[in-house]
Amino acid sequence: MLNVTHLAPVLQTVLTTDADDAARATGFLRRQRKLTGSVFVRTLVFGWLHDPSASVETLTETCADLGVELAPSSLDERFTPQAADCLAVVLSQALEHVLSARPAAVPLLRRFNGVYLQDSSSIRLPAALAPFLPGCGGSGPDAGAAALKLQVRWEISGCALEGLSWHPGRAADTKAPLSQAFLPAGALRLADLGYFELNTLQAYDEQKVYFLSRLPSRSVLYDGQGHKQRLGALLAAVPGNAVDAEVHVGADKRLRCRLLALRVPAAVAQQRRQRLHQQAQKKGRKVSAERLALCAWTVYITNAPAQKLSLREALALGRARWQIELLFKLWKSEGRIDKSRGQRPWRVLCEVYAKLLAMVVQHWVLLTAGPLLGRSAVKAARQVRRQAVHLAQALGVAGQLQRVLRRLQKRLERSGRIKGRRRDASTIQVLLDPEHRTFSDRRKP
Predict the structure, then answer these.
(1) Is the pLDDT of residue 160 over 80?
(2) How far is CA 392 from its chain centroid?
(3) Is the pTM of this model over 0.70?
(4) How many domains does the structure of the chain reveal?
């Protein structure tokens, strides 16, 4: 697991030295003041970590705990473009430190040189920020005018944040640098349909990186005999409930891989169809018969050979992709990275960056108790939040910071373990026993 003696100097460097340097480099501080870059960053990061709904008045109390008395109006007027730049720089420097827990004791995960999950999530911003971070628009004149899109790559075995980047809300997932970034040979990449791009998958295949991907319903396939097929027609001709066949994907047959498909229970298929109809109704569209038919199947493609990854094991890993959805849920529901009590655009953007930095710090602390698989991240995160101010105060003294971290580590180790369940099995249960039919077939659609 992540050693406390390793984490402590990283926290001190990022939130003291790096924060002071960033404040000067971005012009946030032009002369010596009692409010240093370090105190400003720690006030926001740990103030909002402790209470994500904290007002400016409450934040000044945190600032006082760090030795600097400040009027609320004085702190409020410091939410400037330079302050946002300062926080973004510190966040970038924090992400240069890739910290990992001890790899989870899951044989399926250990077959690969890391199992990397990729996903994105968006945060709406005030319309005034549209020139800097344009969104995708919405029904009203200002709805969705500005947004921040987060790209996250997460290695699930050691739970390391291998990458976190932010972009304008309208940026396509397939064009994000992180979606095409280097992975070590023997790694497994697992991403949702929004990242499906044949050139990217082909490149990873050539680099000896495995992929497991959903397949768009309108994809062009060629079967083992070289016959062109539509996915729906190919599956409709299957007499059984499972498919594991070699195919080529793309009009020019360029991507050779395995097509993996499992027929789902009728109730699950009906839920998927209802969801498709609801989504189409909102956009004033109709759902094709082919897409409705495909709701009866869970479909993946992979370049991993059968001896490396069976159909059931692929389904288990596909279910594990939802762990990154839970990460975003944790950040939004508990960390409230997408909520602000402020109205001014630069105040809101400062809050987003500070809360993201708080989530990175929280993630690092959680890893001192081992991998997150099999633990309740919500319960663990609340333990960290309760100690946020103590962590902020201890940052100036190495020995004191280690003591606070060790105390917190012990609390995290004692709490939040997820017990095994017979129904609706947890992700760790599914990964440990992927051939269990009940686990695999009840996968979230």
Answers:
(1) yes
(2) 25
(3) yes
(4) 1
